Amino acid sequence: MEHMQEEAKNQELENMDAAMAVAKRQRMLECEKENIEKKPFMDIQTETKRFRQDVFKRRHRARAVGKHNSTVSNT
Q1: Quick one: CA dihedral 29, 34, 37, 41, positive or negative?
Q2: What does residue 53 show for φ and ψ, rounded to 5 degrees?
Q3: How far apart are CA 12 and CA 37, in angstroms?
Q4: Do 24 and 60 have their domain in common?
Q5: Does the model's pTM come out above 0.70?
Q6: Are 36 and 1 in the same domain?
Q7: Which of 5, 14, 44, 60 fits a disulfide with 48 by CB distance 3.0 to 4.6 angstroms?
Q8: Under 8 Å CB-to-CB from 29, ≥6 apart: which residues?
Q9: How far is CA 43 from CA 33, 36, 37, 52, in A?
């Protein structure tokens, strides 16, 4: 029983950390967007580039897996 409460508390802390990380990234992206609107020809930050690349890769993999699963189920 005590172990479950401890695990629940750890999970709650992880969720709070994840939520704070998302909020931080969102603020960073909003700031970056404002800067780009002010100076359209400026380079984006390295962290923003990595984030965009990660999102692209995740979407690409999900699409590739979806196509692969649909072709396997059709045969």
Answers
A1: negative
A2: -65, -40
A3: 37
A4: no
A5: no
A6: yes
A7: 44
A8: 48, 51
A9: 11, 8, 12, 14
Matching residue, tokens 């404002």: 34
- Count how many residues are written for the chain: 75
Q: How far is CA 6 from the centre of its chain?
A: 27
CB distance 32 to 48 below 8 Å: yes
In which band, very low, low, confident or very high, does the pLDDT at 74 lie, cut at 50, 70 and 90?
A: low
Two tokens at 13?
């802390």
Q: Which domain, by its residues, includes 53?
A: 43-75
User: Is the Cβ–Cβ distance between 45 and 31 less than 8 Å?
Assistant: no
Question: Which residue is it, tokens 């979806």?
Answer: 66
Summarize pLDDT for 48-62 with one digit per residue, the tens.
889 889 999 999 999
Place of tokens 């002010």: 38
The position carrying tokens 């196509």 is 67
